[in-house]
Amino acid sequence: MRGAGQQAVMLAFLTLLMACTSATDSPLHHPSGAGAWIPPPQTPFADYIRQNEERIRQALTTHHYAAQPEPFGPGYPLERAVAMRAPYELRNAAAPCPQEAARPGFLLIHGLTDSPYLLRGVAESLLQAFPCALLRGVLLPGHGTVPGDSLDMRHEDWLRVTEYGVDSFRGEVDGLYLVGFSTGTSLSVRYADAHRDDALLRGLLMLSPALAARSESAWLSPYARWFSRWLGRDAERDAARYESFSMNAGAEFYLLTRDLSDPDFPPLQLPVFMAGSGDDTTVNMEVAREFFCSKTPAQSRRMLWYSAQATGSTPAVTCEGLQVVPAEAPEQRVYSLSHTAISVPPTDPHYGLDGDFALCGHFRDADYETCRHDPTATVYGERNLGEGGRYEGRLVRRGSFNPHYEAMLADMVCFIQGTC
Prior knowledge:
This protein is 30% helix and 15% strand.
């Protein structure tokens, strides 16, 4: 039973929600009827990809492309948007691998309101580093179509798709790494915890590790979703992911992760690699650090903690395997790293330094246009950088790429190889 103080907070919060009147929903904020497909066990992965491509195409055609040919901007025709949001498989078809070569597998699991695109760059980099690898990215139910489909999603379905993804590698690879971004990391930990004897697993690669929400009121979300459907709604300009956030999404994330910070959670025996920002305003990095230091094997773990001088975002304590890395890259206008930056290379055509899309949804009107279109007036960072959305007189674009990506990737590769 929660304390009287927390009960009072909940009552006040729910009363406020009931008193508020929400704006009229657009069709994007209702279920599409074409939500991501959950495959039965042993479905060929190619069929899983094809089914979800068809559903994404249907939803995007109906809700975005029926009205205009490029609703996400020039250069984003329908098929490009479908490819960005759909599950995928990567393998090196250029030359056969020697019979004696190791054949690692990598299952890539994206984050909340995201799509497989957020880890596509990592997948391509890993294939370059391990040319005999097999890589597959899954699409979590409720994602990839329209934000209205997040109103019905359940974390149990995310776990089912994670298990399907793991099982799709059996008999095809020598060992499997789970590569998660944000919510994908908590799904990786949940799978590893429930399958501690699975000989296929070789380790967890966790980017922007999401083991608890940053908000201390996250525990209210399972109750609040019965009174309010949305924490935030936006115009949905991003071809890769949702910009709206449903209360149900927050509730299901809380239910997925609520036991992961329990002191009685049994330590993992798998190798664990983490990389995250001390300035992360989406997830609680101190919870991730505590998990790393107390629940992973000291002899086979590595954590990169990006710290910004402007915010003093150092970890509370350190432990074996944890390295504090300066976040700044002034030559790329980066002064802190955001939650959304860690997994994306600067060369990414969508989110990179010269990419087509900028994360400016926290601004409105003239500031929004300046943030989107005037690089000289902006810097990159997490939302806590500076004051009032400005740092040293310039607008703060939320970071969408990691200027230290190549160094992070090198750390990740040597971690996998055991040569760090």
